[in-house]
Amino acid sequence: MVVPAEVRAELVEHARAEAPNEACGLIVLRDGRAERYVRGRNGLASPYRYRLEVDPEAWFLEDEGFELAVFHSHPETAPRPSRTDIENVGLWDGKPYVIYSLARDELAAWTIAGGSVHPLELS
């Protein structure tokens, strides 16, 4: 997965704006490259978990040939899926799952499938 500098900057900005709570949104991909970021709202307003709320129109981007990756921030911890992330993966099972660590200024991508976590190459 490729996340260009301008998209990464949007992720970082959103994470900083929402701190100390987790930020969340959707990364819009085409052929494994992030084209843009759609900010969401953390319906839980929590530093430990999120419930993604996003403009319903964003879900139709898949009909236009885009792939969607979920994004959220970890304000204090590493950019690795937590137990809560794994247990609540829901419709993101097997899809790209991107986490930004605000404390470490690190971005990482994963897939979570059947309770197992697998890193995705990120550049």
What would you note in describing this structure?
- By secondary structure, the protein is an alpha+beta fold.
- 15% of the residues lie in helices and 37% in strands.
- The chain contains two helices and eight strands, in the order αβββββαβββ.
- The protein has helices at residues 5-18, 83-87, and strands at 24-30, 33-39, 41-42, 52-53, 67-74, 96-101, 106-113, 116-120.
- Strands 2-1-5-6-7-8 form a six-stranded mixed sheet, with helices on one face. Strands 3-4 form a two-stranded antiparallel sheet.
Which features would summarize this protein structure in a list?
single chain, 123 residues, alpha+beta, 6-stranded mixed beta sheet, two-stranded antiparallel sheet, 8 strands, globular
Write a concise synopsis of the structure shown.
With 123 residues, the chain is of the alpha+beta class.
